[in-house]
## 1
Amino acid sequence: MEEGDVITQACASCGAPNRIPRARLRDDPKCGRCHEKVFPRAPVPVTTQTWSREVDEFPLPVLIDFWAQWCRPCRDVAPVLEQIASERAGKLKIAKVNVDENQALAARFGVQSIPTLLLVRGPIHVDQLAGAMPKQALDSWLDRYV
């Protein structure tokens, strides 16, 4: 197996590096150290400083929730995103970007209203939605891409 056929991914539970063959990424691998699943089961906070590691370099699609604490629709969609993160673990990562604390990221992606959901695969922008949506609508939208 060549080096390009393997990625190194930190475990979401213990942080240990895990070498995973690209062909096995969608198998939802377990950590060699703690034996928990490598990929996160819940939304992950992302900042300007962690963006590259948590989003651009992540080997699976990432759904980014641009939100703010004071935003009622953002708080309404949060439990739906937690449920989706659990249900689609190992296939999709949910990342949360607080726009008040990470204004540069919001500006970079042209976020003008919140919540805004941005779906990416590495650095590639796949699609974007603005506004809170019911779980069924989000699932249908995600099913087109993930």
## 2
Amino acid sequence: MMKGFFSKNLSAERLSQHIFYVLLGLIVVVFALFYLVGFNAPFIDDPSFNAPLFTDVVMALMFLLTVGTLALTVWSLARGVKKGGAEQSNDNNIPVKRITYGVLFFTLILIAVTFLLGSPDEMLINGKPYNDIFWLKTADMFIWTTIILLVIAIGATIFGATRYYRKSVRQ
């Protein structure tokens, strides 16, 4: 049954689907372990706090996913720039280069704007004040950028899912 799961004959869409399912399964297992096994273990230094047993595994998974994503992004950008001169800017009348550069610049601008608009207000964390402005703004940047990109992705998915309906309405 696993024969051909990552076969070289798979289309890019099928390969990305398989990778998505593997990552989704891994994430579900890790978070299930995090919440269902030893979640209420008391913290040694202060028993009023929890120290879930699988915290390190969740953090390692997030680190690996972040590093893997960054590595794939850099590889993809380098490959795109390397092939950029050789490829046409249109592929089946789709302006590939314009879309690529538009997404890249939009993402960079979004990250910069959400960082600049991020809140530098002090927070109480575990009962202690935390006031490192850079990391407070960085955390806000990641939260707001993620929310905005998720809303855009949901909108694009809904738009794509209604393609057949829009096509039938036009005819």
